[in-house]
Amino acid sequence: MIIARTPFRVSFLGGGTDLPEFWQEEEGAVLSTAIDKYMHITVNNRFDKSWRLGYSKTEICEDISKIDHKIFRRVLEKYSKLALEKNHGCGLEILSMADIPSGTGLGSSSSFTVSLLHALKGHLGIYQSAEELAREASEIEIKDLKEPIGKQDQYAAAYGGLRYIRFLPSGEVSAEPVICTEDTKRSLEGHMAIFYTGVTRSASGVLSEQKSNTESKRETLRAMKDLAFRMKVCLEKNEPIRRCGELLDEGWKLKKTLASGISAGPIDQWYDRAVSAGAYGGKILGAGGGGFLMVLCPPDKRSQIASELKELRQVEMKFDNFGSRIVFVG
C-alpha cells in the first residue's frame, strides 16, 4: 500500500493569466502558496480483477470505460495495463480523502489529479519529479478532459511553497520560489484570515465565460499579472504586509470584471464588512462565486473581522512548503 499527500493552494494574484487563451499569446504569471489542507490518495492491490474507487461515492467495476469519475477513468486508461501486469491480473483499490470539500476555490481537482498520479505511479515503481507530475496532471485535466481551467493549480500542488509561477507562450512553466525572509512569510501567514462562505460551486461555468472573454479582457489580465509581480517584489523587499493587502484589493476589483457571477450573492457585502472592520484587502479564492473569502488584515483585527462575519466559519490555514509527497509505503 502507498499513500500520497498533496496540498491545496491559495492564489493571491494573477489568476486568469494561467489560461491558455492568455499565455499562448503572452507570458502569464500568478502568485500563490500551498497550504496545510490536503488531498490524500491511498493505492492498494485488489485480490481480484476489479477496480474499487472511493471518493464521495464508491465504484467497483472491471471495465475501465464504465468508471463515472472522469479523472479516475482517464488516469486508469493510461496505467491500468501496467497495473494489471504488475499485480498478476488483479486490479487496484484507490481511495481519496480530502480536508476541504471540492468546489471551494482551493484547487481541489488538481490536487486530486496530482495526488492520484503520484500515488498510482509510485505504487507501480515509477518516480516522477514535481515538474513531471504537474505537467502530466495539466495535460490530463486541460488537454484530455477539456476542463476550462488553467495550469496554476497543478504546479502549486506539485511543488508546494510560496511561489511566483510563470506560464510561457512555449507551454513551459517556471515555478519560482518567492525569495523573502522567514519572518516575512510568517508575517504574511499571520495577516491572513480565511472564511468559508458555505457555498460550493463548479468553477467550470465561471471559467468558461472567463476563457471566452480573455481577448476582450486582455488589458485587465495584464494589470492583474502586474499586480502579482508587484506583490512578489513587496515580499522580496520585506515591505509591510499592508501593501500586499492593498494590491489584493486592486486585484479583487479587477477580477470581478472578468466574468459574471464572480462576486455573486452576498460576497461583496461580506468583503465590504471585512474592510470596514479593518482588513486591508482580499478576494474570493479560486474562480469565484463561493468557496472561501480570504482577507489580509492586521493580526489584532482578526477577531473583530471574525465577529463582523460571524455567519461565516473561520478556517485556520498555514503554508505548506513541501508539495506532493509520498507519506507511507508498506
Hey, roughly how much beta strand do the residues contain?
15-25%
Span from first to last CA? 5 Å
* DSSP summary, beta strand count: 12
Kindly provide the radius of gyration, computed on alpha-carbon positions and rounded to a whole number of angstroms: 20 Å
Which sheet architecture does the biggest sheet show? 8 strands, mixed
Silhouette: globular
Helix content: 25-40%
Structural class: alpha+beta
Order of helices and strands: EHEEEHEHHHEEHEHHHHEEHEE
Number of helices: 11
Detailed description of the structure:
The model has no long low-confidence stretch (mean pLDDT 94). The N and C termini lie close together (5 Å). β9 and β10 form a beta hairpin. The strands form two sheets. Strands 1, 2, 3, 4, 5, 6, 7 and 12 form an eight-stranded mixed beta sheet that branches. Strands 9-10-8-11 form a four-stranded antiparallel beta sheet. It is α+β, with helices and mostly antiparallel strands. It is globular, with a radius of gyration of 20 Å. The protein has helices at 20-23, 70-86, 108-123, 130-144, 152-159, 182-191, 204-212, 218-236, 241-255, 267-276, 302-308, and strands spanning 2-13, 28-45, 51-54, 58-61, 92-98, 162-167, 173-177, 192-196, 281-284, 292-296, 313-314, 325-329. The longest helix is centred in the last third of the chain and has 19 residues, at 218-236. Helices cover 39% and strands 23% of the residues.
Salient structural properties:
4-stranded antiparallel sheet; 330 residues; globular; single chain; 8-stranded mixed sheet; 11 helices; 12 strands; alpha+beta
